[in-house]
Amino acid sequence: MSLARTVAIFSSFTFISRILGFVRDILSASILGAGIVADCFFVALKLPNFFRRLFAEGAFSASFIPVFTATLTTGGREEALSFAETAFSSLIVVLLVLVAVMEIFAPGVIYVLAGGFSDDEAKFQLAVMLTRITFPFLLFISLVSLLGGILNALGKFSETAGTPIILNLCMISALMFFSDQLETPAHSLALAVTVAGLIQLIWLYLACRRVGYKIRLVLPRMTPKVKEMLIIMMPAALGAGVIQINLMLDMIIASHLPDGSISFLFYADRLNQLPIGVIGVALGTVLLPLLARNIAEGDETQVSYNQNRAIELGLFLTIPAAVAFMIVPYQLIHVLFERGAFSADDSWQTAYALAAYAVGLPAYVLAKIFSPGYFARKDTRTPVKYAMVALVVNMTLNLILMQYFAHVGLAMATAISAWVNVAMLSGGLVRRGHFTFETVVLRRLSKYLLASAVMGGIVWLTSGQIAPMFDGPLTQKILGLIILMVAGIGSYLVMTFVTGAVDLRELKAFLRRKKA
């Protein structure tokens, strides 16, 4: 199956999940609003996600998948299964200890990571309680990441891509049916997060069994393969830690800004994450096992080919999305979130943050494409150095820009540092001879930019013509948003064909192609 078709399958499930995520966020905005309760829940949700991305989806995936793929290629199924079982059992032990420690020391963690909450005792205690409810999610979702790594290495992406759907369905159910059953709606949401993690674990465990990988609990052992994985994992954990610390520092700073700042950034980032999740995460997830297999087979030509095709596909979709977010951010936020406890001022503040985040949208996706070029070669050290530089850039800009733009300054700093990181990642691969930009990619990039600029102008003009629709009832607002989307998508597609950025015959051949 070609890269594009594999990404399309993964993206389809991710898109369904993101749509459900928007339903969840719309309900959250309506019920929680952008005040104290919402801020506390989003802090509680960020903490297990911090460790998940640090150890599970970040360092663990970057180290487990290349070793598992190489073991499967050279040693066969039984050796790969034995390695997976040992890694699974070892991960459980580490996670149980970590969850127990976090449950005990939750107040201290909240004091460090959201120090601004300590001025309000009720707000601080609510954040602590919600964190204790959500943190077991880390145990389940980390094991989910390992099982997903097995399936991805085997070319089974749909089961893994479907797991976020479970989380969104659980949270939607909590908001719709149980929001008034506990002390606050945030309590119901926090409990739904942990329950969803358990269901996801059961889902992927059964998926692994269906493909012949029944993972048993065994005595954790320091086998040569586990040792190799840990050697790769340590710098990867440091690199992921730098990135996640970067995000946490943003939250720490935002906790000292006016109430609602964390929520403004959260809702803006949720919308910005739609193309990142549907495109960037899909490309990164599919590329890592694919490149690891190419490298294990000694096919460097195919490695460069696959990355160039991923860049074409990623930028084709993300550049116009970034332009749209910068041109009509308020209309998007206004229609999606402004109801119930979410006010008009909340919409404007969130829209400003979305426009700032959008500047870095292509960079976030490109990072997902270039990082596998290092991880597939078991090089997790180099991305650490680049991440640390990006962290320094981000924090420096945070402290400067927040003085003038408050929470929007934090989003601007994040976007700029993302481009710095991508410049270093791509430059490092080029200098080592592991990647070469094809001329056709650079040529198409210029055409994508031209088509997106024309699209942006048409969307801007259209939004001015239909502005009164966004002051009407909800059905009229939705119709107005649909008109903007049709105008944007239609004009962009027309321009890509006019400029020759996309050729129908070449597109059909590309979707069917398996090799360069």
What is the fold's blueprint, element by element?
Elements: H1 3-31, H2 36-75, H3 77-104, H4 106-113, H5 121-134, H6 137-153, H7 158-177, H8 185-210, H9 224-254, H10 261-296, H11 300-327, H12 329-337, H13 344-358, H14 361-375, H15 382-405, H16 407-431, H17 439-465, H18 474-499, H19 504-512
Helix pairs in contact: 1-7, 1-10, 2-3, 2-5, 2-6, 2-8, 2-9, 2-10, 3-6, 4-5, 5-8, 6-8, 7-8, 9-15, 10-11, 10-13, 10-14, 11-13, 11-14, 11-17, 12-13, 13-16, 14-16, 15-16, 17-18
Number of DSSP helical runs: 19
Determine Rg (CA atoms, Å).
23 Å
Helix and strand succession? HHHHHHHHHHHHHHHHHHH
Domain unit count: 2
Q: Helical proportion?
A: over 70%
Mean pLDDT: 82
What gross morphology would you assign?
Answer: globular
Major sheet: size, sense and barrel closure? Answer: none
**By helix and strand content, what is the structural category?**
mainly alpha
Care to count the β-strands? 0
Roughly how many Å apart are the termini?
13 Å
Parts with pLDDT < 50 across at least 5 consecutive residues: none
Q: Beta fraction of the residues?
A: under 5%
Short recap of the structure:
The protein has 516 residues and is an all-alpha fold.
Plain-language structure description:
By secondary structure, the protein is mainly α. It folds into two domains: 199 residues, no CATH class; 257 residues, no CATH class. The protein contains 19 helices and no strands. Helix 10 runs parallel beside helix 13 and helix 15 packs antiparallel against helix 16. The longest helix is centred in the first third of the chain and has 40 residues. The two termini are 13 Å apart.
